[in-house]
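Lecture notes, unit on binding sites. The following record was shown on slide 14. It pairs a sequence with adenosine-5'-diphosphate.
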Amino acid sequence: MAQYQASARAHTNIALIKYWGKKDQQLILPMNGSLSLTLDKFYTDTSVSYDKNLTQDEFYLNGAQKEDPKVMHFMDIVRQNTGFDSHAVIKSTNHVPTAAGLASSASAYAALALAATAAANKKFDRQKLSRIARRGSGSATRSIFGGFAEWLEGTDDQSSYAQPLEYENDWDIRMIAIVIDDQPKKVSSRQGMQTVVATSPFYSEWIKSAKTDLKNIKTALASQDFKHFGEIAESNALKMHALNLSAQPHFNYFAPASIIAMNIIEEIRELGYPCYYTMDAGPNVKVICKNADLSVILRQLQNHFPADHLLVAAPGPGAQLLD
Ligand code: ADP
Ligand code: DP6
């Protein structure tokens, strides 16, 4: 008997040029292209098992059954793409805090896209998987790939997908996640970006500026200019957070310790160790640095944060099937 079951692992990615707004809510087409680094430390494992006797999908997250309309809707999109009609039992485990700005939705939907299509015996190429993952959560588009990835904004379902960016460099890049709070946030990414697009008076400037940042950060990557690379990433993140402050109603993802962390990173940089921060839809701050400077930077950070709140990640692989 054919086995309609598969498991997959996908790693989270952290955007250095952010996606923060949709031009199509239903297809999840972004207002601007984005660029990210997939991380080895944080990931989601998901298994999908189709059962023709089921009348609806069953979803378990970290061992507990959940009603999640986004997962159900996503499975309908998978069924449209595979032509395989059964419902499934989906079991997912996050090795990353859920909804805390550490990109659980990115690893979640990349893993689910791969597992759910493979369980239907479809072997889609990565571009197609990236497009399917996009329909679950925009940032998942990029988690199909390892290392640096660029999400091409596109104009329709066909043209909006991620691709890997392979640059030769000797940076041996690391990302330190300073875990300030790993509890779910109050304003989801989906809600936050929608409010910003609808109300921020700066939104059209953001789109222009993010497009310029994307072009320039690729030049910095290609020319191995770490300083410029870090400066663009840091500035892009701050512009995204400035949109939130300018929205109606305004909101923000900063905790007092997030601001402290950003100031400390700037101080470490002034000591001569190149390091730059980025922040997503949550209070945790992520620091980009080279492996060669990692131990000094960690030591400095340990003067202010408990060592077990400083999680070091290296570039991680793309989504893969598990045995
Ligand atoms: P994060 O910063 O963690 O990405 P988001 O608000 O972007 O936060 O996304 C969190 C949402 O992603 C959760 O509320 C849930 O709907 C979804 N999610 C997280 N993990 C999983 C998973 N393993 N499987 C399916 N959906 C998940
Ligand atoms: C700040 O991908 O979680 O992390 O597409 O609505 O599911 P939806 O949003 P999501 O938003 C990610 C926002 C971000 C920036 C980024 O990853 O580019």
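Take-home: The chain has two domains: 4-167, 173-313.
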